[in-house]
């Protein structure tokens, strides 16, 4: 199954991405001329922004790591490293930024620390993305593929580790790094070559996504949108002369958008996977409990559900009726009209039986071949007889089972056995045996009818056992063999 990330880009996705590009461009072009315009200093904004970016980038890294592990994709693993790198650095920036946890930030940091963490963030993250894109474009043999997987895994684990090292450098060596901020002014950053390096590193992965030789897939398309938002973030942040200016706020808003894009794509894919998993489970359940030809429940479902219904009847003191149904002369019908017509008749037969049931607890199952069983909870023998007659009449009206030449119709023979909670204490096997005996009595009585099990059925079986058929070595037969043979003898030379 091809995931959302690997799917070819549709026209709708192209249109949505184009709209996103246009929105980013419009925001950037409008905000750049007014980037230095001062706005209200909202300290909680930075806290909320950093917390949101940390959570979003962390979740994106986690989902990409899961996805890469499932597909053994070095590109996704390296991309997870990029997002993990960003998440860790954003967390450190939140801790050391002046005015959030303390006036000067935690860890006794200097005024340059938060800015250099921002530089490492916006230079390192696109570098990781560039490396991930290069990994994807590398074509190797099967042996080289294993090496790429290891490199991708090392990059995924190395991203957060390098982020910690970069934060350590920004915290402990801030006095040794070039000064980029004087008070609240960013003019030094604007004039520093550091700004050009960060901007250049942000543009490289964006160009790789646009001009990649591989066919554009869903992830690459939206990753390019996220990278475009990252470029806008760098331009707006550098253009802002101080914190809490229009450019500063706009840059962080676009940065938040950049963080959300890939996460939204991953959530969309996991939602699709979940829907497909539910559908697959439903398909498996249908195959496990339903007969593939007729759509009725299969023998496995009957063997699992019928004992439950019988135990419930015993516990609640309710009757339970079981109807054993067999199609008359079905082998002859198949030989005359073909198996396809016979299959169509069985399908129609199940439809007629289901139409005769009125309660959700009642169900029909294919017991084997042309033999079916109806389970009717909380139903006495009189009610079961009414259902049997309704089914018999419905089967006679099935058009697909009629012979156009002779205008004959298909018939069924039905045996009914009812569990009486007051007098009975046997198990399902005995109930099936009784319904089976009643069904054979219906066949021996002329077919196209139903018979309710009575004590006479057992009496006839015992009589057949007492008077063995000539030529049969009854003295060596087991009791179960005698009983089975006697049940067959009830139909006296009649074709089942």
How would you sum up this structure, described in words?
This protein is an alpha+beta fold and 496 residues long. It has two domains: 11-284, Rhopdopsin 7-helix transmembrane proteins, CATH 1.20.1070; 299-489, Alpha-Beta Plaits. The protein has helices spanning 11-31, 43-71, 74-96, 113-137, 142-172, 187-191, 193-210, 218-239, 246-289, 299-316, 330-337, 339-356, 381-396, 428-444, 455-466, 479-489; strands spanning 320-327, 363-368, 371-377, 412-419, 449-452. It has a five-stranded mixed sheet, sandwiched between helices. Helix 1 packs antiparallel against helix 9 and helix 3 (74-96) packs antiparallel against helix 4. The radius of gyration is 38 Å and the shape is elongated. The model is unreliable at 461-496 (pLDDT under 50).
């Amino acid at each position: 199954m091809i995931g959302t990330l690997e799917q070819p880009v549709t026209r709708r996705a192209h249109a949505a991405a184009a709209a996103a590009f246009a929105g980013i461009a419009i925001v950037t072009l409008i905000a750049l001329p007014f980037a230095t315009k001062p706005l209200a200093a909202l300290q909680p904004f930075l806290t909320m922004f950093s917390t949101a970016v940390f959570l979003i980038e962390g979740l994106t890294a986690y989902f990409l790591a899961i996805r890469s592990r499932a597909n053994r994709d070095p590109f996704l693993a390296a991309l997870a490293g990029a997002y993990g790198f960003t998440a860790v650095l954003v967390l450190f920036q939140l801790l050391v930024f002046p005015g959030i946890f303390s006036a000067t930030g935690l860890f006794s940091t200097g005024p340059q620390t938060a800015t250099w963490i921002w530089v490492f963030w916006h230079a390192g993250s696109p570098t990781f993305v560039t490396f991930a894109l290069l990994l994807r474009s590398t074509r190797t043999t099967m042996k080289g593929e294993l090496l790429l997987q290891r490199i991708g895994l090392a990059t995924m684990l190395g991203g957060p580790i390098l982020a910690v090292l970069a934060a350590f450098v920004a915290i402990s060596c801030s006095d040794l790094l070039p000064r980029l901020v004087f008070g609240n002014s960013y003019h030094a950053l604007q004039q520093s070559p550091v700004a050009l390096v960060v901007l250049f590193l942000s543009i490289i992965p964006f160009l790789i996504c646009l001009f990649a030789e591989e066919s554009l897939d869903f992830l690459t398309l939206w990753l390019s949108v996220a990278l475009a938002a990252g470029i806008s973030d760098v331009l707006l942040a550098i253009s802002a002369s101080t914190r809490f200016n229009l450019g500063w706020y706009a840059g962080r808003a676009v940065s938040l958008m950049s963080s959300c894009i890939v996460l939204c794509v991953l959530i969309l894919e996991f939602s699709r996977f979940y829907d497909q998993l539910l559908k697959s489970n439903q398909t498996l359940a249908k195959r496990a409990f339903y007969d593939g030809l007729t759509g009725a429940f299969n023998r496995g479902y009957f063997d699992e559900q019928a004992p439950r219904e019988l135990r419930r009847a015993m516990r609640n003191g309710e009757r339970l009726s079981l109807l054993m149904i067999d199609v008359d002369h079905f082998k002859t019908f198949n030989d005359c009209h073909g198996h396809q017509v016979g299959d169509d008749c069985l399908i129609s037969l199940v439809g007629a039986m289901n139409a005769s049931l009125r309660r959700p607890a009642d169900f029909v199952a294919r017991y084997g071949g042309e033999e079916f069983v109806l389970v009717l909870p909380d139903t006495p023998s009189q009610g079961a007889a009414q259902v049997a007659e309704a089914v018999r009449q419905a089967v006679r009206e099935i058009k697909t089972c009629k012979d156009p030449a002779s205008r004959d119709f298909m018939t069924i023979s039905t045996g009914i056995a009812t569990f009486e909670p007051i007098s009975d204490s046997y198990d399902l096997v005995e109930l099936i045996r009784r319904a089976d005996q009643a069904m054979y009595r219906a066949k021996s009585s002329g077919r196209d009818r139903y018979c309710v099990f009575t004590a006479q059925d057992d009496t006839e079986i015992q009589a057949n056992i007492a008077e063995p058929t000539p030529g049969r070595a009854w003295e060596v037969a087991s009791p179960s063999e005698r009983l089975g043979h006697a049940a067959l003898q009830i139909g006296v030379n009649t074709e089942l």
